[in-house]
Amino acid sequence: MDRTDSLIEQFRALPAESDQKRELVATIGDMLADRPDHPVVVPFLTSVTADAEEYELARVEATKALRLRPPADAGSRLRAGQALLAVLRGPDEDLVRQYAAMALGPYADDPEVHEVLAAAVMDDFDRLVRDNALAALNEAGPSDKRIEVLHRLSEDAALGHEAVRILTAWGLEPAA
Question: pTM for this one?
């Protein structure tokens, strides 16, 4: 058993609301920096992210790790993106949804991710989800679809100014 397996076992043995769970997820997520292809880390982070019964702060740490170190493998990347989408679409705690929205930036080239981010930035009921979805679109960088969303958003009372700022930073003219 390697260190990662041992940490995952420790995580699973902890009580539901233990802050040690958050710390273990952060440590396990950091392991992706040294070994992005580790066979159990991404599935573990994906499962923690998607588990609505899991400790909220552990789920937040898992979304952060998936954002900062997205899997290179296409299959793992798809599964990680799907887990983040499930959280954003679901009835999860607001904090977890906010972090899931932010974490989707590296996955935004997937058409389904783009559509969910676009919907979230345009009309999610949680203002911070909208803000984080906008930050994710910005992080993903310019594409025809993202530019179109930002042009539509530029008319929005709450986020229009930021959409214009992003378009300008990308060297584009805001919608007239």
Answer: 0.93
